[in-house]
Amino acid sequence: MPERAFLVGLDYHVRKGSAAAKLAPGSRTPGAQAARDAVTSVVGGSKASPVPEFTAQESLDELCSLAESAGAEIAGDFLQHRDRPDPATLIGKGKLEEIRGAAASVSAELIIVDQDLSPSQQRNIEDVVHTRVIDRTQLILDIFARHARTREGQLQVELAQLEYLLPRLAGRGREMSQLGGGIGTRGPGETQLETDRRKIYRRIRHVKVQLENVRRIRAQQRQRRESVPVPTVALVGYTNAGKSTLFNALTRAEVLASSQMFATLDPTIRSITLPSRRKALLSDTVGFIRKLPHTLVSAFRATLEEVQRAGLILEISDASNVLSAEQDVQVELVLKELEADKKPRLRIMNKIDLLPAARRDTLRDDAQMIHVSAAKGIGLSTLLDRIDLALEQDPLSRVHLRVPQREGKTLAMLEAGSRIYSRHYKDGLVELEAEAPESLVRRLREWVV
Question: What's the Cα-to-Cα distance from 302 to each of 208, 210, 211, 285, 382, rounded to whole Å?
Fold first, then answer.
C-alpha cells in the first residue's frame, strides 16, 4: 500500500528594504545568492537580466512529483504564506494546528515539508502535528535509495543518508531504534542501523574507504580510456529532461528511461560513431534538481567526475516544460559547484514533439542550441554533426593521400576511421581526399601528400 502523504509548501513575502529581501526567495544565504548572480549572465544574457526562479506553487508541484517518485499517494497539500520563517517551526504554531487537522482529515501518514528542516524544527513540527515529518532533502535521499542499483550507487546514497542522520540523533533514539518501513526510512534504515554516534562515524569512515576504492578504480579506467584519444561527451540536465532517452537514441543502449524523477543514478558510458567516423564516449549522468542536497553532490562526486573530465557537455533541457528556464538556472548552479561551468557546451532542447506544431515550425538551431526529439528521432543527425564539430580533442583535418593499392590494411583503416570525399585509382596508387582525426593522420603520415 502506498503511503499517504500530505505536502506543505512555504511562500515568504519578504518586506522591501529588509536584509532578507536582498536574497533570492529560493536561496536564503548570501553564498547561494552569489552563485545565482554568477549565472545571471550565462542564463539571462546580461547582468541586468533577472534569473528565472520557481514560484512557491511551482516548487510545491515539483515536490508532488518527487513524492510520487518515492511511491507516495498524495492525500492533500497546503501552501503557507508568511513574511518570514518561524525559527522554531518555519510555519508557526497556529498554522501547524490547521495542518494537523487537514492531514488528519485525509488520513495522512506522513507530512513532507518543501524546505530543509533543522533537527529541532523537525521535532517541533512533529510534536504539534503528531505525524511523521520529513523534509525535501530526506525525500530526495529516499528516492536515490530506491533507485540505486549498483554497489557504487548504494554506497554513495548510504554515505549521504548517514551524514544527514548524524545531527538528527538527539531525542530520536526510541523512534530510530524501531525503524519501520515508509518514505524517508530506506537505505541505512533497512539494515536496522544503530544510532549511536560512534558506530555511525565508524560506518561513515568505512563507506568513504569503499568509495575511495571505487574512485581509484574509476580513475584507472578513465586513464586507460584517455591513453587512447577518444573524447568523452557528458549528458547533463534537470531530472526528467530526457537524458536517458537521448542516450539510448544515440547509442542504441537500453538504459532505463522513465518519467519518474531520478530514474538514472548509476552512470553509463557507451561508444558512439560520429559522422566523421571517429569514436566518442557518451556518458549518461544523474539528473540535477533545485536544492540538490550538498551531501548528495559530495557523495556522488566520483560519478560526477565524468562531467568534470568530459571534453564536451551536452546540456539537455525539456523544451515542452514551462519551467525550463528556471531548471536551466539550477543546472548551471550545479555545474558551477562541480567547476565544470567553463567547459565547451551545447544546449539541447529536447521533447520538441510535445510542442504545438505552429511553435515547432518557428524553432531554429543556432551556434549554441539544437532542437531535437529523442523519443521520435528528430534532429539527431544534426546533433551528431554538431558534436563532431564541437569536440576539440583529436581534431579533424582534411588531407590528401596517395596510398599503394597493396596497402590493404591502411586503406581499411582509412575506410573505417575517416570520411572519404573522393577516391581515384592510378598507376597502382589510390588517391584520396579525406577528413580524418589527428590521431589517424599521424599513423598515415608517410602517405600524406
Answer: 11, 12, 8, 11, 32
184: left (phi over 0), alpha (psi -120 to 50) or beta: left
Instruction: Show me where the domains of the chain are located.
Output: 3-139, 229-390, 396-447
Query: What would the grid cell of residue 248 be?
Result: 539510448
**346-395 pLDDT tens trace:** 999 999 999 999 998 899 998 889 999 999 999 999 999 999 888 887 78
Q: Which CATH number fits domain 3-139: 3.40.50.300, 3.40.50.20, 3.40.50.11060, 3.40.50.170?
A: 3.40.50.11060
- As a whole number of angstroms, the distance between CA 254 and CA 246 comes to 11
Helix (H) or strand (E) holding 437, with range, is strand 429-437
Measured from the Cβ of residue 182, the count of other Cβ atoms closer than 10 Å reads: 18
CATH architecture of 229-390: 3-Layer(aba) Sandwich (3.40)
Q: Mind spelling out the 3-state secondary structure of 260-322? A: CCCCCCCCEEEEEECCCCCEEEEEECCCECCCCCHHHHHHCHHHHHHHHCCCEEEEEEECCCC
| 355, 371, 383 from 364: Cα distances, Å | 14, 8, 13
Q: Which three cell numbers stand for residue 440?
A: 589517424
Q: What is the pTM for the complete model shown?
A: 0.74
Sheet holding 132-135, edge to edge: 72-82, 3-12, 110-113, 132-135
Query: Three-state SS for 392?
Result: coil
396-447: which CATH number, 3.40.50.300, 3.30.70.240, 2.40.128.90, 3.40.50.920?
Answer: 3.30.70.240
- The tens digit of pLDDT for each residue in 124-173 reads 999 999 999 999 989 988 888 887 777 777 888 888 888 888 877 654 54
